[in-house]
Amino acid sequence: MGDDPVDREGGDRKPVGLVVRLAYATLDDFRRRFAANLSRGGVFIQTREPRPVGTAVAFELRLSTGEKVLRGDGVVRWIATEDQAAQPRRVPGMGIQFTRLDAASRALVDAMAAARAAQGALTPSGGPALTPPGPARPIATPVPVFT
Fold this sequence. Notes:
By secondary structure, the protein is an alpha+beta fold. Helices cover 16% and strands 30% of the residues. It contains 2 helices and 7 strands. A hairpin with a 5-residue loop joins strand 4 (56-62) and strand 5 (68-80). The chain is globular, with a radius of gyration of 15 Å.
């Protein structure tokens, strides 16, 4: 089926809805602590229940207060399995490539990527593309969204 969002029968595939509640209480805390999970091209979501590669997702990341901070659509591009023996320890999750972000989310992603680039953490193009982060990030359990 590849990257095409239309299945063989000619109908549109419905994206899997994910709501991820993060441990961060404020937007400043989110910006400071979640930045390693985010690039202009996508986001790493730490979870023990990743969706299969190629899955279309409609996602929403929320602070612990319920405030929405990132919302859009994407495609799962890779899966990371937990490896406690790796140095640094590898955490489980999935890399999601953005296909659409709402305007507020795009502005936040661009601002966070620019701040990281200014600190020398990213290349000018916004890379590295979806590199799995190290440990010490909260594990989020995706919650299905029914529309």
